[in-house]
Amino acid sequence: MNPELKKSIDELIASNKVVVFMKGNRQFPMCGFSNTVVQILNVMDVPYHTVNILEDDAIRSGMKEYSQWPTFPQVYINGDFFGGCDIMIEAYQSGELKEQLEIALNS
Amino acid sequence: MSITADQVKEKLTSALEATSVEVVDTSGGCGSAFEVYVVSPQFEGKTLIARHRLVNDALKAEMAAIHALSIKKAQTPAQAAAAAAAAPASS
């Protein structure tokens, strides 16, 4: 993938504890799966940064390659790819998400 | 070609040595969307994302024909046992 794009993604996920690559934004999610992730993060009451992949085809295709994950939303916590909607739900229910977010926000 | 829930189940059982696999066809019968619940000892010590990647890799050949795959649970036998003990009322 384009090295400049990779560098800007690297910087983005390094400078924000929680980043969500999604369809739409936190006020107006454009897809149910993206909406689910936004709702979970709102409930967790943590600061997070969103990137609207519908506005940028380079990011949209770039992120699939970067994460080696075929779908959106994609959630990064503390610089690591955490997962998509299924994982967020599972981790939220099991308490693992809370744990990971606490680690991330206190690091 | 269309994929059946049984094919998905068989694949996951053999690839992941799964002790329990539940596959729900959510496509309304056209065989292109599934929910899966997997319990496998191979998940031991792996993060959720690593577990989901294992599931995706096991179904690599089928993924081309599957429109949507939702991994609802990817647990180790110990986690599944703990969950079952915590919620004996739900099957």
Task: Tell me what you see in this structure.
The complex is a heterodimer of chains A (107) and B (91). Chain A is α+β, with helices and mostly antiparallel strands and 107 residues long. Chain A has one domain (3-106): Glutaredoxin (3-Layer(aba) Sandwich), CATH 3.40.30. Chain A has helices at residues 3-15, 32-44, 57-67, 85-94, 96-106, and strands at 18-22, 49-52, 74-77, 80-83. Chain A is globular. Chain A starts with a helix and ends with a helix. Chain B contains four helices and three strands; from the N terminus they run αββααβα. Chain B has helices at residues 5-16, 48-58, 60-63, 77-86; strands at residues 20-25, 33-39, 68-75. Chain B has a three-stranded mixed sheet with strand order 1-2-3. The chains are: A alpha+beta (107), B alpha+beta (91). At the A-B interface, strand 4 and helix 4 of A face helix 2 and strand 3 of B.
Question: Can you give keywords for this protein?
Answer:
heterodimer; A: 107 residues; alpha+beta; Glutaredoxin; four-stranded mixed beta sheet; 4 strands; 54% helix; globular; B: 91 residues; GMP Synthetase, Chain A, domain 3; three-stranded mixed beta sheet; 4 helices; BolA-like_sf (chain B); Bola-like protein (chain B); BOL2 (chain B)
